[in-house]
Amino acid sequence: MLADSNSTSAPLAEIQNFTLFVSSWNVGGIAPPNDLNMEDLLDTQNNLADIYVLGFQEIVPLNAGSVIVPENTTTCMQWNSLISTALNKIDVNNITLQEAEEEESVRVYPLKKGSSLKFNVENSTQFECIISKQMVGIFITVWARSPLLPYISHTSVSCVGCGIFGYLGNKGSVSVRFWLHETSFCFVCSHLASGGKEGDERQRNADASQILSRTRFSCDSFQYLPRKILQHDRVIWLGDLNYRIYLPEATTRSLVNDRQWSILLQNDQLKAELREGCIFNGWQEEDIEFAPTYKYYPDSDDYYGCSQNGKRGKSRAPAWCDRIIWFGKGLKQSQYNRGEFKLSDHRPVWAIFKAEVKVPSPLY
C-alpha cells in the first residue's frame, strides 16, 4: 500500500501581500535639521506600510575628505532618529477593535497564542530598523513593523564603489537583502555618474553594469542563499540614477514650464534604457506623472539656471534624476510620486508596492 504522499511533503505555504514604502532622496550634503518632519514624506497620515525602505544620496558633502571616510555614524543616527520619530508617532487610540483584529490577521502570521489585543495593536504600530548601512554619501535604512521581526532573516549588505578610480564610494551602490518568511528581497540604493553632456549616459550605464556584476551577498554553507541582485525574488532599485533628457536645454525648460511630461519622458534616457533592454533588461518603472526632481535652487521652487534675484546660475536642465524601478514578478506598484521638501537641489521620490510573500501555512 502506498504511503500518503502528503505525509512526507514539505509544509504547505500560502501567498500573502505585504505593503512596501520605498523612497529615495539626494540631500545635497546638507545635514538634516533637528525639526525636520519626515511624516509628509513617509505619508504616515494616509498609509501605513509593513516595511519602509529609505535611500539617500550625498548625506555628506562629496569632497576629498569624505570620500576616504566611508561611514559617518553621527549623520546616519540623525536620519534614523528622524525616521523613527515619524514612523512611531501613531495614535493607537484611533484604531478600532475590528481594525486591530483585521490588521493582525492579515499582516502578522501566525499570531502568537495568548497574545492580548492590546499587545497586538501596540506592536502593529511600532517600527524598528532591521538594517542600515552607509558608504560615503549613499545611505540605506530599512524599517519593519515589530511583529514582523521574528519572520525576517538572512539580512546582509553589499557595497560597490564606482567613483574616483572606478572604486571609491562617491558614486556606486549600497544594496541590502533579507528574507521575509520564505521570500527574498533585495534593495539597491545607488548614485550613478553625473553629467548632462551627450554621452554621459554611457558612464551611468557602466556604473549600473558594475553594480549588477560586483554586488555579492554573504552565503550560507548549509543552505542556498542568492548572492547576486537578480537572484532574489523581489528586487527594487532606487536612487539618484542621474539620467537626463535627450533634448536641448531650452526645449526641455519650455516643455517643463508647459508640464508636457509625456513628450519629455519620450526623450528620457532611463526610459530609453528600459525600452531598449541593454543594462536594465527586464526592469520596470511605473508611469511618471510628476515634475522633474532636479535641479532646484535650495529652499525654492525654481529650477537652477532660471532667473533668480537677477542672476543666472550655471546651466542645469531639469531632469528626472531620482527614480525607483523594479525587477521580476510578485510586485505591484500602486503609487509613484515626489515629495516637496526643499532641503536640497533634489526633490525626493517615493513609491508604494504590494509584494507577494510566501508564508508557511499553519499546522493544526
Automatic annotation (TrEMBL):
Inositol polyphosphate-related phosphatase domain location: 16-361
GO MF terms, alphabetically ordered: inositol-polyphosphate 5-phosphatase activity; phosphatidylinositol-3,4,5-trisphosphate 5-phosphatase activity; phosphatidylinositol-4,5-bisphosphate 5-phosphatase activity
Keyword annotations: Hydrolase
Hydrolase is among the record's keywords: yes
GO biological process: phosphatidylinositol dephosphorylation
UniProt-listed InterPro entries: Endo/exonu/phosph_ase_sf, IP5P_plant, IPPc
PANTHER family the UniProt entry points to: TYPE IV INOSITOL POLYPHOSPHATE 5-PHOSPHATASE 9, TYPE IV INOSITOL POLYPHOSPHATE 5-PHOSPHATASE 9-LIKE
Family: Belongs to the inositol polyphosphate 5-phosphatase family.
The protein's name in its UniProt record: Inositol polyphosphate-related phosphatase domain-containing protein
Annotated source species: Solanum pinnatisectum (tansyleaf nightshade)
